[in-house]
């Protein structure tokens, strides 16, 4: 059903509470959401935005090791991982530099009706 802006949603969910262990949903496949999948980035939604000091910012970025990769879809068919070449960071590498940006998510149990 479309909302007032004419956007169609198959599912809308909301949860009271904050992480950890409060999730409005778990999706297997491509998702756009305001939460931990993608974040709202517009300045009007943020307070206390401050520039990170130049040398610290550059030093932090230099510690990151961007990769190109493909997902191991054969080993994890239940995750519906994207096909083709991807670009980004490995969580294990990112955790060493910016640990607050990485968290464990548990795949929900699948049961037969």
Rounded radius of gyration (Å):
18 Å
Give the proportion of residues in helices.
Answer: 10-25%
Low-confidence stretches: 32-38
In total, the number of strands is 2
Strand fraction: 5-15%
Major sheet: size, sense and barrel closure? 2 strands, antiparallel
Structural class of the secondary elements?
mainly alpha
Estimate the mean pLDDT confidence: 80
Structure, described:
The chain is mostly helical. 15% of the residues lie in helices and 5% in strands. It is built from 2 helices and 2 strands. It has helices at 54-63, 91-97; strands spanning 67-69, 86-88. The longest helix has 10 residues, at 54-63.
Keywords:
2 helices; 113 residues; extended; mainly alpha
Summarize this structure briefly.
Helix content is 15%, strand content 5%.
Helix and strand topology:
Elements: H1 54-63, E1 67-69, E2 86-88, H2 91-97
Antiparallel strand pairs: 1-2
């Amino acid at each position: 059903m479309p909302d007032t802006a004419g956007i169609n949603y198959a599912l809308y969910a909301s949860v009271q509470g904050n992480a950890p262990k409060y999730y409005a949903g778990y999706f297997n496949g491509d998702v756009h959401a305001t939460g931990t999948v993608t974040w709202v980035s517009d300045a009007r939604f943020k307070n206390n935005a401050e520039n990170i000091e130049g040398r610290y910012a550059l030093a932090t970025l230099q510690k990151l090791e961007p990769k190109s990769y493909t997902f191991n879809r054969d080993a994890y068919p239940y995750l519906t991982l994207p096909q083709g070449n991807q670009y980004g960071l490995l969580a294990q590498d990112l955790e060493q530099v910016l640990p607050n940006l990485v968290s464990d998510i548990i795949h929900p149990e699948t049961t037969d009706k």
